[in-house]
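To: structure desk
From: M.T.
Subject: fold request, one chain
Message: Could you run this one when you get a chance? Sequence is below, nothing fancy, just the single chain.
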Amino acid sequence: MSESSEIAPALANLAFHHFGLAVASPDDAFRYLASLGYRAGNSAFDPLQRVNLAMRHHPMMPDVEVIWPGDGPSPIDRLIKKTGTMIYHLCYACADADAALTALSAAGMEILTVSPPTPAILFGGQHVSFHHISGFGLIEILHTGSPGTVNVRRMDSR
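Reply: Done. Structure tokens follow.
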């Protein structure tokens, strides 16, 4: 499939939000990000995802969600065991996730929903869903069209 300069209107509503960094323990990641000028944001243990989460923000660089296992089994255990620390998802905020996923599918992307919309404690209960895009990898969608709002910062508006 060739690249196109035209973006379906539904895809134009996808705004990059952050990337997810899976780690076995967060201390080294926190030190590295702090050395680059990142500041601490919200942090929480999410019992639905069974992981610890901490946001890091920077005025000129993408936000980073640092994710590490809790006490029990978690969705990132296999990733960490296999590859160690790694960026494993990109997150996009979107007011109409169904329309965006339909547009991606219409553009020829194969999409497998890994996790349906679920409240995310780190984002004040805002729903998130995870989808595997064939040939690309895992994306998270922050559903801004569900009740409540999330402060979405586009990279060009910082």
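Reply (cont.): The domain at 9-157 is CATH 3.10.180.10 (2,3-Dihydroxybiphenyl 1,2-Dioxygenase; domain 1). Let me know if you need anything else for the meeting.
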